[in-house]
Please model this.
Amino acid sequence: MLSVVARGALAACLLLFVQAPVVRFDSARNLFLLENWPGAAQMPAERYRDVLQVFVDAPDVPAMLGQYRVDAGALVFSPQYPIQPGVKYRAVARIPGTSPITVLVDIPKPAVKSTTVVERIYPSVNVLPENQLKFYIHFSAPMARGFGYDHIVLRDQNGAIVKVPFLELTEELWDPTGQRFTLFLDPGRIKRGLVSQQQLGMALIEGGRYTLSIDKGWKDAQGNPLAADFEKIFTVGPADRQPIDLRAWTVRDPASGTRNPLTLVFPEPLDHAILERDLDVVDASGAVIEGGVAIGPEEKSWIFTPDKAWKSGLYTVRLGTAIADLAGNMINRPFEIDVFDKVDEELLHFKYVFPFAVQ
Amino acid sequence: MVDGSLTADGGKMTKFRLTMCALLALTLFATSGAAADLTDSLKLGKADLKSVGVLAFGPDGVLFAGDSMGGQIFAIDTQDRTPSTASAVEVMGLTGKIAAMLGTMPDQITLNDIAVNPASKKTYVSVSRGIGVNATPVIVRIDTTGKLEALSLDNVKYSSVALPNPVNASTGGRGGNSRLQAITDIAFLDNRVFVAGLSNEEFSSTLRSIAFPFNSADKGTNVEIWHGSHNQFETNSPIRTFLPYKVNGEQTILASYTCTPLVKVPVSSLKSGAKVMGTTIAEFGAGNTPLDMIAYSKGGKNYILMSNTSRGVMKFSADGLETFSPITKQVPDKAGVPYETIATLTNVAQMDQFDAQRVVILEKSGDLRTVALP
Model:
C-alpha cells in the first residue's frame, strides 16, 4: 500500500506528466498543435510563430507557410499547402524558459501500383514524311510536367540515338488535362536553309526506319512511373512540301431523317488534334449543327455524327485555317512558302468550306 | 473634405473657393496620375491564376505574369516600390528553400521564371507547387538579404486579360478544348503588353500587343511574325523570347525563334491582323533554343546578353544592329551579328537584370546568384 504522501506525489507527477506541453500532428485535420501550454491563450498573435514553427525536415530551410490560431487552449498551425505524403516534417515548439520540443512527423506515402500508360501516339500511321513536324503522345492519366524530354528517345535502324531531334521547351506543351504531350521535331532541322538544318541535317532521313521510345521512368501526376515502356516504330518517306488540296477530298453524304455520320475523306493523314477542333458543320442559314466528331483510321477521315437527324438541304463543312497535314502544310499554303502575301486569317478563320447536300 | 458652410462671410467663401481649387487641383493631379501610375486601374481581389510562368516588371511595382493554363495575363500590384541600392542577392539552394516553405520536396516544384523589381531589387520567382496540371501557382519574393516570402494573391490589386483561344470561335464549343497557348515571353513597353506564345497544336507565331490598362473589349492586336528569306523560304515561326529595344532610334522588337535566329521587327509595323517579316540579323548555330535576353550598357557600349538551352550565355553588341544586312541566303554556320560565349556563365536556367552593372542568375542547380554583366 502506498502511503498518502506517496500517492499524492504520484498524482502530482501524473498531473505534471499529463499537463506537460505536447506537440502533435492531427492527421485527420492536417494541423500541427502545441497543447497543454497555458501560455498560448495569453500570447499576442504576432508571437505565435516565435513559439511554434513547422519545417520540412531538411537542413537550412525556412519555416513552412501557414496560419496560426489558438483553439481550445492549443496553439494551432494550419499549413497553407496540403501536407504531402512521402515528406518528413519537423515541428518545433520554443516555449520561453524551456528547452525546445521537436517532433518529427513522417507522412507515409502509400504504395501505389503504376497504372498509367502511353495509350497511343499520333500520327497513327507508320510511314511518315521526312519533314514530319510533330507527335502527340496520349497518356491514360494526367502526367507530371517538366520531365518529358528526359524520357523520349529517337533511334535509327542501327539503334543509334538521333541527336537533338526535338524542339525542347522548358514550358512543355500539354493539353489542359495533362494527358497529351505535344512533341515538335526541331523546326530548325526541317526548314530548308537554316544553320541547324545544314549542320545537323534532317532529323529523319528518307528510307530510314526509326523507333520513338518512351521510357517508363516518366512519372505521372501522382509521382508514379509508367506501367510500361512504349515504342512507335516507323519508316520515313519523302518530304511532303505540298499544300493540302481540297480537290482531292471526297464527302459521303448522310441521308435525311437519319443520324448517319457525314464523312469527309482525304488522301493523306492530317493533324489529329486540329482535326478534332477546327472543322464544323453549318446549315444553309449558317446555324451550327451540333454533334460529335470522330477521326477515322490513319487520320484520313473526319466523321461527324449530328445530335439530331439530318434534314434535307444544303450544308457546309467549314474548315479552319489551322488544318494541317503531318508536315505542317495547310490548305493551299505549304509549311514553307516563297511568296509574301497579306494574311487576314484573323478576320476570316473559315476561309475554306466544303459544301454537301442531304437528300 | 469640403468646408461647405455657404455663408455671406467673405472669409468662409474664400476658404471654400480655396478648398474647391485645392480639390480641383487634386482631381487634375489624380487624372494625370492615372497615366503616370500603373496601379490605378487595378482592383482589389483574388488574382485567380491557374498557373504562373513568365514574369516581367512594369513601372510602379506592377508585375506582369503569364498564366498559360488559364490563357490570361495578370498585372499585379506588388506594392514594392521602395528603392534599394543593394548590390546583390544570393540564395544557395533556392529550389530546396522554396520547396520547404511550401511544405514539399524540390522534385515537387518547378521554378518557372524570375524577374527583378528594378526599384526594390527584390527578385520574384514564379513557382508551380506540384507536378501535374493542377499544380498550385505561387509567386515568391526574395529580398536582397535572401529572405523569402510568398506574394499574397488572395487579396491584391490586380487586373487580367484573357488571350483569345481560336478553338472557341471555330467549333461552337463542341467537344473538349485541348488547345493551349504556352506563353513564352512577356514585356511591357509604352503602355502596351507584348506577349509571345506557342500553341500546343499548330506551329505558328502569335505576338500579341495588348493595351494597358487592360480592357475586356480590347484583346490586343495579333501579328504573325514570319521567319523569312532563308533560301527564299518562309515559315510562320514561334517566337521563344524577345526584347523591346531601340535600334538606331527606332523602337524595335528583337526576337529569337525556337531555332535561334535573331530577328528585328519595328514596333510600328505591329498592327492588327498584319503579317510582318522579321529581318534576320543573326544565326547562332544549331541544336539550341534561346531562353532570355537582356540589354545593358558597359564602357559606353551597348550589349545584349542571351541565355540558351545548350549554347550557354552569349553576348553580342547592340550598337549598329541596323548596319547588319538581312541574312537572305544560306550561311555555313553562325552569321550576321558576331557574338561571344561567356565561359563563366554556365548552367543558367533563368536570368534577369539586377541593375546597370549586374545580372541575377538562377542556375540549373537551384542556386540564385548575382554576377557582374560581362
About this structure: Residues 1-34, 168-173, 228-234 of chain B have pLDDT under 50 and may be disordered. The first strand of chain B starts at residue 43 and ends at 45.
